[in-house]
Each structure stands twice: as structure tokens, then as C-alpha cells.
Amino acid sequence: MNTKTLSEKPNLLKIYILEAKTEFMRLIRTPGFSIPTLLFPIMFYTFFGIVFSMSPAMPTYLMVTYGVFGVIGPALFSFGVGIAVERGQGWFNLKEVSPMPASAYIFARVALTFIFSFVIICLLYFMAAVFADVQLYRSQWLLIALILIIGSLPFCAIGMYLGLSLKSSAAPATVNLIYLPLGFLSGLWLPITLFPEMMQSLANLLPPYHLAQVALKVIDMDVGDSIYLHLGVLAAYSIVFILLAMKAYYKKDKS
Amino acid sequence: MKTKVLIITAVITGLFFLLPEPNESIEPTDSNEQVDENSQSFDQNFIISKVRLFDGFKVFEETDVLIENNKIANIAVNIENKNNFPVLDAQGKTLIPGLIDAHTHAYGEALEDALNFGVTTELDMFTMPAFAQDHFENRDSVTNTNHADLFSATILATTTNGHGTQFGFDIPVLNHVDEVEGFVVERINDGADFIKAVYNSELADRKHFPSVSYEVMVELVESAHKNNRMLVVHVDNLISAKEVINAGADGIVHSFMDSVVDDEFIQSMLNNNAFVVPTLSVLASAVQLSNADELLQNQNLSRFLSKQQKQQLDAKFPAFGIPEQGFRNAMESVSLLAKAGVSILAGSDAPNPGTTHGATLHGELMFLVKAGMTEQQVLHSATGAVSEHFDVGLRGTLKTGAMASMVLLNNNPFDDITHTQNIAKIWKNGSSHKRTTLANTVNNNSIIQPGLVSDFNASLTETQIGQGIIESTDQMAGGKSTVELNQKSHENSEDSYLHVKGEILKGFMYRWSGFSYMLSQDPTQAVNFSQIKQLTFDAKSIDAKQELALLLFEKGSFQPVTHMIKLSKEWQNHVVELSQFKAADLTEVSNISFVISQELGEYEFMIDNIELK
Amino acid sequence: MQHEHIAQIHQVSKKFDENLALDQVSLDIRSGEVLGILGPNGAGKTTLINLMLGRMALTTGEVSIFGLKPGSIELKRQCGAMLQLSGLPDMSTVKEHIELFMSYYANPFAYQKIIDLAGLAGIEDQYSKTLSGGQKQRLLFALAICGNPKLLFLDEPSVGMDIETRKSLWHTINELKANGTSVILTTHYLEEADQLSDRIIMLNQGKIIHQGTPDEIKANINTKKIRFISSTPLAELMSIGDKLKITSSGKYYEIQSKDSSKILRKLFQVSDDIQDLTVTGAALEDAFIQLNQANPMKTNAAGEEL
Predict the structure, then answer these.
(1) Which of A 75-114 lie inside 8 A of C, CB atoms?
(2) How many CB atoms within 10 Å of residue B143?
(3) By residue range, what is the domain housing residue B582?
(4) pTM of the entire predicted model
């Protein structure tokens, strides 16, 4: 046994970059997946936020909420469906027994989610600025984009848990069944204030609602609750789902 | 690869700088605050240092104010910061008490709108008890931070068809002395903080409305005082004002335009320690001399106005035919009263046409200065002076123990009263208030979809969209015009239509008769017409030259946008593009009325198949 | 061949609920050897491999490979694995797959060497989607060996390969072995195990029922099945030999034996109306059943030392 080779380590940064790059190339070669994810929120925004806008503030408000809708999509799908399918193929197992650091796998998918989120935000901004005449301060444009991109992380955690616990054949349908109602009930499609009281209180339990509130704070359109409440809920969801995902992952006897 | 990434990054960065920014060159005040003050929070416990303080009565230069547990705990030069509270350096700025508007009508968003302009207390002179009661409950709670405190007369005392009855609410009226005591007790049960009456003397020249009798007036004063309440009176001429003050009323809540006050009146005001709320803003609006445009154009105010507030400011009274001199009389009276030492209290009478909650009080202060009062007197009239007359506690003052409801002004209002409009920060009960701007109001009216409103076959009054069809005449405003709605059948057919027959009679200055197509239950609610492009209907009239007025009413507004249509003697389909109601906000439609207006005499017209497209 | 032990598996048991998948298995793996693991489905092959790969937790016992715990990243960097997959991400090229896996290792083979070893020349730029079953197997093999592993796990490596490719795969495995790589191979091709393994262990019902060199194993499972029709009663047939396994199935009798010629000689002595006689090699499955039943004692003996 050569102890020298044992102690040597591969270049971690290189793994991260290659892993993310491979994942990214794979996705852009699969337009069937990437284009709907990109265009869904844009289409919805165009419909509700621009064409059928009910008030002058609507395009701005909905730009933010559809931004949230936009970023949770890639997070849920990249993690939820991506992992479930690779598990079904056995590819996930192969990666698991290979010396790939688990962090690289997560990093690649988070990076991918961020890139997708960024593209969606760019498209939304374009529509909002050109067709809906949305005007914000540069700092606000920037801050909202940052909040949305970083804000996709709790949904990565949720997606990770789903990916690790769902059957690969059921994953796409299940994630869609979570994604769309979650978006609607959190008031991402239409302002939460249009909903009956009961639905508004339901939204309080859902993480997209809280992410939307954080982002809406930038333009003073939030309902006025404390930012710590929103961040707290998002953090709580992240922690719970990271724990659930770890539990699902370490449930080793999955033969 | 690297060059590609570089190019993409450059393009995106470039595009980022093309994203549109608001036109104003300065960022909103609250953003500035966040940057300037390192996001320290000035809530509950903090110190404002080196500020020019107006405590409602006097001015103190470069003083420190300690706020502890949401209350003013100490006012002194160089307060020691024992508890290491956040310190707001306010050198050059001026701290004044939260303003009090001594004459408003509060409903809907009134109290939120008020607070948004530093008005932390409103004295309401007529609103529905339900609204008032909602706001009485937590009036003295320290957590009551997102709207102004409300003190209210609830329902005013008037007589059948008297002023106050024209708004369409079913309110109790007084016709006899015996009814007075019961009325006052009822108001007190409603929670009224004071009693407000409407009075017009038998001897007055101009009489638009019937009024309670002098005997009732006297009884109102006595009954109110017996029950430990003040009695304030709406008058619109000197003779009536004299009568109510002599009867013992505590104050009058309008100035008047018919004549300038005389020595006798001033003397009786002084003797009775009575006050006047001149409401110059609404008087100016009545003679088209309003300063609302000035307010609308001032960036310091306008960017905090909601759309509805802008409409209220933009609204005009119909031409009453009162000469402009009337307004100058009122100004002259204010000047004389102030000089003689009579208490003047600032009030806006919002939301009458040309006025709105919050913003108009700043406009009122401008009028009061114009009338000849000093800036300090004027600020006193909107703060400390109110606390001397009304039982509002320490509101309107910044004395030790008072709730820290206050306004920090960027400049010195004693140099220029318009500096009250340049607000650095507002606190309500010790909590800093984040001012709302137009950008963040979201319309949540339900959206109306196109469809048939009524073909008048099944029902005359029920509609498939909206809340139905009701008679509408100037009787609501004290006029005498009449109308009759009937379901009739077309010749040789079972298909029926709406037959409208009525008579326009003299009575109210603005005469109308016809029907209203109600879209909401009451005027404070509305629906969203953004999906509707056209209103179509079939119509004909008996008179070939009949002109039909379509009046589109917006939420909370009594000023419709009008569109005229010529009817012919044959059935004809009319298509009204809603875009023709240029001034209207179609997302806030409350009702559309089909009326004949102004022209005296009988009329008859028929309507069928009303549709929204 | 060196005789250094690189891995010790000591008294390992694995329970799934109440099901004992591995029962007190002990095993050493030596440096530079190819260890074949044979056994019918459900024998515990996969469980054993999974335990060594760190994908499952032990119920009792101990596994140590290179002195490390299974599943640790340091150990994974010394190993390569080829598992049975139903698919791999469609839209990556062969080259991208290999380069990514190479990056996981500190001292991988040169890219060109991997291509040559796995026989992937000419299809490097194809998406995995377009590969045939055999080509996919070769790619998976490439991913397993790309890190120049000290220990290589191969789970049914030649499934879907034609004979020629299989031969070249065997050649490559022998090359790696010569290079000092230890290989753990599971297969159900007896020929594959025979060709490659230095040592074979046979698992059944969670126990090692036999282990030895391929030659030893072959001797043990070189069982033939004799099938015929005869009117001779079963009792008389039983006299052919002790412990003889005779079963009757319909009108046929079946005898399983390692020494078929001796049995046949005796059979013709006992019975004179043998009809429709066939002699076939026993299926692996049969051999296991037979070994398990015939040599219950040998399991223990084999488990401890051989």
C-alpha cells in the first residue's frame, strides 16, 4: 500500500466546476425540460401582470411574485425530479459509491438552479421594463434579483428531500402537483390580498409566500410583517427539509 | 469559453443599467433613512438630539428628546444616554407633534391616509358609528401604530332633508325638542366623543337645506353639556354662527362666506371661549380657489398620495354660484378672529371635493398663514390648540408623558409653513411609520367580466352582473325630482324593457332623475372594470331631443364622470366606449347612473338590453 | 502474487427486518487478486458488495478495507465500481462522463489510456443516449477504472457484451490485475469466473457455502443430471449408491451426480429397460442447491479457513 497516494486529494474546485458544467450542458441539451421551466413564469406574468393587469401597481407586484414562482421551479425540478430520476436509473448509486464529494453534487445543482433563476429573472425584468413600464431604483432591481436567487435555497432543500424520497416514475407529476398549487396558494399568481381571509392565513404557512414578502419589502409592497418572521419561516423550512433529506439519504438499506 | 462568459457578463451588466428607474432624482425618504442611519431603528426607545422642538405651544432650539417606552420621557438640553438608546442626530430639523385635523369625515382608508402625512389624530364630524367604533377600541393602545387616532361625533344632528342627509345614508333626524335627549344619548351609546349639529338660522338669506329649529339647537347644547359632551356646529353664515354661539355651542366647525365677522361676534366667541375650525380648504374648493393643484404638484406630498387621494384632490364642486369674494370674507374673518385671540383650529373637511385626508391639512395650514396668522399660531392650531378644546389627552403636544406621536421635518416650518410638507420621519405611538407611496397600493376590487347586465325580461331591478337597478333622483341631496321605473313589453312581443318616467323639479342646485346601475353595495366599495371595453344598450325616448347623461361613480367619490348621449324617438343601439370616461379610474367603479339632468320638466325614456362588452 | 490482505470482512451479518441476508460471513481479500463471487439471486451477493461499498450499514461484524471504513471518501478514492444500471444521463458525451469521473481521483489514468483500456475509441463524442447496451457497459467499465483504483468492484460486467468484447474486457481486467489492482467480481457466467478469478466464493442463503480456486470449485459443481424412463422400482434404483439423489418427475427419473459414468454403469446393471436417456450438465442453480444440501458441514469449514 502506498500511503502517499492515500493522502493525496483531487482538486475540489475542479470537481465543482466540472460537475456544474456537465450538469449545465446536459440541461441545455434537453430543451424539452429547460424551455417550459423558463417560459412558464414569463407567460403567466405576461398574462396576469401585463395583459390583464388590474391596477398600476400590479405589474411591479407580480414581477416580484412571478420571480419567486420562477426561481422555485428550477429548484424543485432540478433537485426533486433530477435526483429521483437518477436514483431510478441507478446512476445516483454509482455517483454515491464513486469518490465524488456529496458537496459537489449539491453545489452543481444549486449552481444550476441559480443560473436558471438568473435567466428567468432577466426575462421577467425585460418583460416588466419593456412592456409594463415598471420603474424601480437600480438598487431595488439588484436587491430583488439577489433575494430571489438566494431565496431559491430553501426550495432546493425541499426538492432534495422530494428527490430522495419519491419514486422516479412518480416524481415529475408529484413535483408539478406541489409546484403549481404552492405557487397559487402562496399568492404568487395573483396578489394575496385578493384571496379570502382563510386562504390568506393558509399562505402564511407556505414558504413561497414568505420569500415573496421578503422581496416585496424592497419595494414596500409587503403586508408589513417583520422580516425576521419571513426569514425565520424560510430558515425553518430549510432546516426541516435538510434534516428530512439527510434522513432519507442515510436510510441506507434501500437495496 | 472564457471570452463567451465575459461577453455575456458585459451584455447583462449593460442591460442592467438600461432598466428603467423612477423619474424623480431623489430616492424615497425611507430608503435614504435606511442608508443614512445605518439601519438603526428608532422605535420605542431612542433619543432625538439637537432638534428644534415645537411642543404644540412653544419652540425650543437645539434640544434633546428622550423617548422611552413609546412616550416622551424627557426634554432637555444634553440628555445623558444612560441606556445606550439609538440617537438620531436631528440638527437643523424640526420636531412637531403629530398633527390633528379638527374637521374630517373618516371612512375607508381615511385614517391610514392621514397618518401617511403626519396627521396622527382626526376629529371626525360625521361618519357611520360602525366605522368609528372599529377605531375607538384600540385608540389608546400603544400598538395602534398604523393609522391615525379617531375622535368622532358619529352621526350628526340634522333635520329631515337637512344637510347631512344627502349622502344616501339612512340617519336619524330631529324635528322636535323632545327627540333631542334621546338622540344625544344614542350618540353617546355609539361612542361619540362630542356632538355635532347642523344649523341654519330662520333669518339667513341663503337656504339650501331645511334646518333644526333654534329651540332644538338650544336643547342640543344643553343635552350635550348635561351628558358631558361638547356641542360643535356646522354653520354657513354669520347670523347662524351668532345664534349658536349665543346658545352656548362650544365651537363652529366652518367659517362662512356670506359676510366678515363683526366685533359683536368676536366678543361672544371670546366670552364663551368658543373656537372656530375655518376649513378654508373646502371653502376655497367651493369657489374654485382650491390649492389642491399646488399640493398635487408638490413632490413631497404627491408621491405619498394614493390614487384615490389624487382623485379626491382633483375633484371639483359643482358651480354653486358663490362669488370668490365669499372666500376672501372667510379669510378676513380668520384674520380678525385670530388677532382678537379666538381659538382657531385647523381642519380640512376631507374628503370633500378638492380635499383629502392628511395632505389637505398641510394645505389648510398654508391658507391659515395666508389669512394672516403667524406660522407658530398656525402650527399651534393643528396641535396644542386642539388639545386645549377637545378631550384628546396629550395628543397634539410633545410634553413629558405624551405618546410619541410626532413628525420630524427636514426644515424649519416657522420660516415657511410649506416646510411641514417636507417630512423626514413620522412616528405614531413611538413607532416609526413607513410611509406608503402610490407604487405600493394594490387594487383588490373584484374584476367584472363582460356579459349581459339585464334584458329586463325576468326582473326589473335585479341584474345578472352587479347589485341591481335602483331609482336615483336629487331627492337624495334634498331635491324634488321624481322618477318611476316600470317593466313594459315591446309591441306584439313578450320581450320587455325598462320604462323610465319622471320629472325634473327645482329643489337641489344640481338636479337629476333616472336610475342607477349599482355595482357595489355601498359607495365605499367598487368593482374593477379593466376587462370591460364598452357599455351597450338599446334606448329610445318620447322627446326627440332628449339627452341622457351617463354618470360613472368611483369608489368613495360623489363626483361622477359624465358622458352625454342623444336619444332618438326610435329604438336605437348605443355603444359607449368606456375609454370616453377619460378622467375615471375604471378599476374603481361603484355605480353607473342613467339620468336626465338639469333641464326642468317631465321626461320619459326606455332602456333595454344593457350589456358590458 | 502477493499475499498482503487489503480487506478483512469479519463475522458480518446483515438483517433486513427479520430476514437474514448475510449470516456470519468472514472473508479476506488479498492484494492483486481477482475474487469471484458466485451465487443464485438472493444469495447475498449484492448485500455483500453493498456493505463493502458502504451503501448499507452492518447489523453485526466488521468490514475494513485498506484499514478504512466502507463509505469514507478516502476509501472511495482508492476504489472503482461498476454497478448494474438501467440508464445513465442521456445528454452527456462519453468524453464528458469520463473526464468528470477522472476529476474525482487524485491520480487517474491518462484519458487516452482509459479509452484504450475500455475500447471506447471512436465513440467518445457520442451522447450516452445513442450508445448500444454493450457500449454503455464499456463506458461504465471506463468510469470504474478511470481513477487507477487499488480495488475494483465489478458487478456483472459483461452483461450485454458480445463474445469478442467480453474477451477484450477479460484481457483488460487481467492487465489491471497484473498492475496490482484487486478485483471483486460478481457474475453468473461460470466461464467468466473461471477465466478471471484467482479465487471464487460461492454464496447461498447468506452463507459462504464454498470457496476455492476455480479448479476446486469446478470439481465441486461439475454435476451432471441423468434423466431416463424405466420400469424399475425406485427402491431398487436406490441401491446404486449411498446418498444418491434420485427424484421421480412424471414418468422420468432424475439422478444428479458428479461421477456420472460410474452411476451410468451401475444403472445399466440394475435396470434393463432404460429408455429416453439424457445426460446434461447441471445448471448453476442446481449446483448450488446440491452443494448446499450435500455439504452442510463444508460451509463452516470453508468459512473459517481455506
Answers:
(1) 86, 88-91, 93-94, 96-101
(2) 9
(3) 446-612
(4) 0.51
